[in-house]
Amino acid sequence: MGKPMADYVKLPKLDEYKEWFKDFADLHREDGILQVTWKTNDGPMYWSGMAHRAMSQLTRTLSMDHENEIIIFTHYGEDWMIESDPNGWETYTQERFNHQYFDDTNLIKNMVFDLDVPTIGAMPGSGFHWDSAMLCDITLMAEDTRIEVPHAQGGLVPGDGMGLMFQHYLGTKRGNYYMMSSRQVNAQQMLEWGMASEVLPKGKVLNRAWEIARMLKVMPYENRCIMSDLAKRPLQKLIVDNLKLHTVSEQYATMIQIDKGDLGDPEAPQQDEKYISRVNAWRYDSEVDNMMKPQTAESWLNMPKLAHEYFEKKGIEKE
Q1: C-alpha distances in Å from residue 293, one per residue of 178, 185, 287, 288
Q2: Cβ of 116: how many Cβ atoms within 10 Å?
Q3: 41-66: per-residue pLDDT in tens?
Q4: Is 219 inside a domain boundary?
Q5: Is residue 269 part of a domain?
Q6: Each residue of 108-167: pLDDT tens digit?
Q7: Would residue 5 count as lying in a domain?
Q8: Is the pTM of this model over 0.90?
Q9: What are the Cα distances from residue 299, in Å, to 2, 270, 283, 304?
Q10: In this structure, what are the phi and psi dihedrals at residue 80, rounded to the nearest 5 degrees?
Q11: SS3 state at 23
Q12: Tell me, what CATH number does 294's domain have?
C-alpha cells in the first residue's frame, strides 16, 4: 500500500483541551464515556460572558475527539448554575453582537449538530441556563429541580433558546405561558410534560447517568451513534426553523432599548443581563416558592426588593 500525500490533521487530545477549559469544566473520561462537569475555577459555575462562550467552544472541541463515545453533562455541587459573576459582563457591551448573535446560537446549535454521539444531561438540582442538560438525548434530574425562563420578568425578550425549548417540550400554549410569565416548573411537572426522562432522589442523578451510559456502551459503536442522530432529529429541525430568529429577536429588542436609554439596572424597563441573573440565589432557594406561583405585575416589580431582603437576612453581599 502506498503512502498518502498528506496525513490526517493532528487534533488535540483530552489531556490538552481539558487544560484549555479548566476554568469552566472538569473533564473525566472512562471507557469512552466522558463526564463534563460545568464549574468556575474550583466551584459552581458563575454565569458570565466568558462561561457563555466557553460552553459552545467546548462542545465543538469535544465533537472532534472520536474517543468521546458517550457524553454526560452535569454541574458542580448540588444544583445547576445559580450564581452570576458580577464582573463577568464588563465586555458584553463591546461584544454584544458576538455574544448574542454567535454565542447564543452556538450554545444551542453545537449540542445537537456537532455532537454525533449519545448525550445525557444530569441535573443535580435547580438552576438557570440549563440548555446543555435539556438538549441532551436523555435528561435526568433530581426531584427538587426547578427551572424557568427568567428573561421576561427583567424586560428582556426570551430569545436565547430557552423559551424555544419551553414551546417545544411543554407545548405551544403552556410553553408560551411559562416563557412569558417567568414562572418556574418543577421536576415532576417536567417529567409529566415531556421535558425530563427520569426524576431521581437527590444525589442519585449522576450515578444513574453513568448507569445509562454503560448500558448504551453495550450497543455497537456505529449503531448507538446512528440512534443518537435519530434522537436529535426533532431538535435539529426545531433549531433550523426557529433558533436564529429567536436569537436575533432578543438582540434586536435589546438594541432598541439601548437606543431609547431604557437598558440598565433593576429599575430600568429592561434590566442588563447581570441584574437578571444576580437574584437567582433567591429564586431557587428551597424556602422560596414565589416563582412557582402564578405571576403578577406586583410579583415582578417586587422581586428586586424581596431578593434584597433575602440577601440581607442571609448575610449575602451582592454587587
Answers
A1: 11, 10, 13, 11
A2: 15
A3: 999 999 999 999 999 999 999 999 99
A4: yes
A5: yes
A6: 999 999 999 999 999 999 999 999 999 999 999 999 999 999 999 999 999 989 999 999
A7: no
A8: yes
A9: 73, 16, 12, 10
A10: -85, -170
A11: coil
A12: 3.90.226.10
